[in-house]
Design brief:
Layout (H helix, E strand, L loop, with lengths): L12 E3 L10 H6 L18 E7 L18 H26 L6 H6 L4 E3 L2 E2 L10 E7 L4 E4 L7 E4 L5 E3 L8 E4 L1 H6 L8 E5 L2 H7 L1
Antiparallel strand pairs: 1-2, 2-3, 2-4, 5-10, 6-9, 7-8, 7-10
Length: about 210
């Protein structure tokens, strides 16, 4: 496929469904009880989702150069505009976090400069799957911060520090931010990475119809 680049580990261009698989987290999965258990089994299956990676901003030289899908001539303009707004949101939250921890406000944003800030539109073909399909297996994000727009469908679940599972619903006009593993490492565990999964639920089926 012309927009798929496995030679760059799918870090630019499209990632086909059933290419990615979450790391197995048996100890974390087994720590959740009753209604807080994940749908994702251990070991996890491959994710039934597509993704398109695009680097935003001034990145380091060793990062693979962006590839543009030929069938979307407006793609670059749209993702550059949207991506820069999202980076600004992440910078603001990073500064707020630093101030809240009694640190210099720029301590995190300085680390973020010229990093591989990736915009990654993600989707799945709902006509091919059924209730119970795992679109994104139980995982944490490796990066510093993840920022999401509002999805057209439900199915995203996340876990609190207490082990409580909840369905994520982003209000109109809002964005969702999650802490990644790098945020946990750089704060020595003061901030925990957020675990989450994306599932084809009965609610998705109802909205699809």
């Amino acid at each position: 496929m012309p927009d798929v680049f496995p030679e760059f580990d799918f870090q630019v261009g499209a990632t086909p469904e059933f290419s990615e698989k979450a790391r197995d987290q048996p100890e974390v999965l087994n720590s959740y009880v009753n209604g807080n258990k994940a749908v994702t089994p251990s070991p996890p299956p491959h994710d039934a989702k597509w993704r398109y990676f695009y680097n935003i901003g001034d990145v380091m030289e060793d990062i693979a150069q962006n590839r543009l899908p030929k069938d979307f001539p407006e793609f670059e303009e749209v993702v550059e505009g949207w991506g820069k707004h999202m980076i600004n949101g992440c910078n603001t939250v990073a500064e707020m976090a630093a101030i809240g921890m009694g640190l210099d406000r720029n301590v995190f944003t300085e680390m973020m400069k010229r990093g591989p800030h990736k915009l990654a539109p993600t989707g799945s073909d709902l006509s091919k799957f059924k209730v119970g399909t795992i679109f994104a297996g139980f995982h944490y994000d490796f990066n510093f911060l993840t920022i999401h727009g509002k999805s057209r469908y439900p199915g995203l679940f996340a876990w609190l520090r207490t082990g409580e599972k909840f369905s994520v619903a982003v209000p109109e006009g809002h964005l969702l931010l999650q802490a990644g593993k790098q945020f946990e490492w750089v704060t020595g565990g003061y901030i925990n990475c957020g675990y989450h999964e994306v599932i084809y639920t009965p609610e998705v089926e109802k909205k699809k119809d």
